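Narrative summary of target 7.
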Amino acid sequence: MRVLTTETVPGHEIVESVGIARGNTVEARNVGRDITQSIRNITGGELKAYSELLTKARDEAVERMVEDAEGLGADAVVNVRFETSEVTSGGAEVIAYGTAVRLA
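Modeled conformation, tokenized:
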């Protein structure tokens, strides 16, 4: 499955758009991370535990988007975008979405 942020798939012709493919996940921080990251926030520097948490969430959202696209019979997902939002204190949603297409 090709996953691209562009509107086309280089070297391929898009013959049909089969719908919007999407995948999301909601991830929550944990108390242990909050304590260590609070200390890091005081001293400065990257909050690696949170970076890793969001990377995991983005990867999961993409995997779920690909599963959705496969269910639609797509060969690729183009024009992929990500959005995040806070859904609860300490919990964030990451959604990946794009146009599921069939290639020639």
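The longest helix spans residues 48-71.
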